[in-house]
Amino acid sequence: MNFNKLGSNVYFRINFTRRGNYLGNFLDFGASVDWTFAMRHFTKEKTDNIITKTRSRGYDYYNPLNYHVFARIGFNRYVLSGSYRLSDVFKNKYNYPELAKITVGLEIGLFDL
Fold it and tell me: Is residue 113 in some structural domain?
């Protein structure tokens, strides 16, 4: 499944080091919203050395709006982030298994100022 989304977020940052043109150490709390404007379902099947690829669109089994809350803690160029999705990706009437609501990540900056 490929979800094409447009989103925005707001957050509150607490800085533990100097401010300016320097990322430093910080803690963020925030919320975000995503709008799914296109969704495509890709499948690939191989039987008897024949490969069949299918691309489908126009399904209505997903919710177009998703809401998240998140937190990030940063130490110079390293950021540990966590997000919790408040909304369901799939509509309840189809009884699809839901995707994971918690996402944890590590961001590493390429440049250290």
Answer: no
